[in-house]
Amino acid sequence: MCIPAVAVGINWSSSASLDFSRWCITAYPAVNSTKLSHFLRGFFERFIQLSRIFYWIELKVAHIFSGMLECYVNGCSAEEEGKFQTSTSSAMAASLDEEALNEHATDDPEEVVRSVEMATQNSTMRRKLGYFSCVTGNPIDDCWRCDNKWQLNRKRLADCGIGFGRNAIGGRDGEFYVVTDPGDDDPVNPRPGTLRHAVIQDEPLWIIFKRDMVITLKQELIMNSFKTIDGRGVNVHIANGGCITIQFVTNVIIHGLHIHDCRPTGNAMVRSSPSHYGWRTMADGDAISIFGSSHIWVDHNSLSNCADGLVDAVMGSTSITISNNYFTHHNEVILLGHSDSYMRDKQMQATIAYNHFGEGLIQRMPRCRHGYFHVVNNDYTHWEMYAIGGSADPTINSQGNRYLAPFNPFAKEVTKRVDTPEGRWKGWNWRSEGDLMLNGAFFIPSGAGAGAHASYARASSLGAKSSSMVGTITSGAGALVCRLGRQC
């Protein structure tokens, strides 16, 4: 249920700058309304004045409020913590031969869906025990962000992945490479100390940055396998030129970058390894292009305003997690699948989790073909056409998301079956479980999910609870502001 302001005697007019859409309470049956109103009145009166002083107080209040209310309604039990155990990532190498790129695709996608749910619930249980100062219920962030010495334990991030891309280890097993030079004068012979020189090396590398920098690439940045680009602790923008290409490689982590205003590049020679460079045709201008690659994790980036897509994964790519990103000001946001006729994308598996799809977005969050896609705990606050679309019989599993429809009465539907008659798409497996629909948003399910919802039931009421927590779980989406010696 949603409790209006008048129910607790609060005058919102003095706090008009706050986003109280994050504080709608849902799925709590059988609550004594008088007792709850008294509880809420006292809670808000204690914090509302501080919330007007600092912006970050808004996030903290929402965080504390959500945890306190869960304990108030459901009770908190210390015994609950031992019921779940997060999965840690293990090292996974993949051949670069095109036929072997996807040999590590998950045999049982449902098992990975359950692993995401278990990790989320485990984090939620820790949160319910009272660790309000740090733990948010986001299992990725709770794995590493509480560490004051994160800068000394950067590689811990590689053990925090979830979903289909959970085994992406990036450069965990290699040395650190410090980028000191934002230049990109020669894409064939890059200078040591540049980002291009770092990403083309054959050995595993964990790439960090000495200082804030804006990197304008003359050509697309072609990555080699087993690399992590880690922008934590500095403010790094890749902008106004070529952007990131992950092609026929494996085990890549992209974390903590601002990527925007990417432009088409190409018709030029570009180096892809110490021993190889070649002619590149025109690139589309994607922020991140994943092409025939596996075990890829794109986490905590801020992406906007590029010539084509923000994240595109095509040509048999698989084992991908796209998480904790902040997407804004773009038309076609995420594409998963090359074309309706490209059958190798049937093995694609991607998890879209804990992202914030924000202002200025139009469509494709994501747009799927073939494959299996888990869309979980995202915050959809803006779209102009639709949020989730697809063709060629993809399986789409939407759980615990928050969908806020636009005011346009003709754009309330979350879903869109692209260029397909209803007689065909009715057999596709698209389901919505525990999603929060706001401002008239609606999701049209199909396939088994439309007639046999009980068969998709998950543990307890995780879906409904997590949708009420989406504001807190996604409050840190995008590139983080991390300072040395403090929690990130």
TrEMBL record:
Annotated catalysed reactions: Eliminative cleavage of (1->4)-alpha-D-galacturonan to give oligosaccharides with 4-deoxy-alpha-D-galact-4-enuronosyl groups at their non-reducing ends
Cofactor(s) it depends on: Ca(2+)
Pathway, per record: Glycan metabolism; pectin degradation; 2-dehydro-3-deoxy-D-gluconate from pectin: step 2/5
Cofactor remark from the record: Binds 1 Ca(2+) ion. Required for its activity.
Superkingdom: Eukaryota
Enzyme Commission number(s): 4.2.2.2
GO MF, any single term: metal ion binding
Family statement: Belongs to the polysaccharide lyase 1 family.
GO biological process, one term: pectin catabolic process
Key words of the record: Calcium, Lyase, Metal-binding, Signal
A Pfam family it matches: Pectate_lyase_4
Organism: Dorcoceras hygrometricum
Uppermost EC category: lyase
Alphabetical list of SMART domains matching this protein: Amb_all
Keyword tRNA-binding: no
Residue stretches making up the Pectate lyase domain: 212-409
Protein name: Pectate lyase
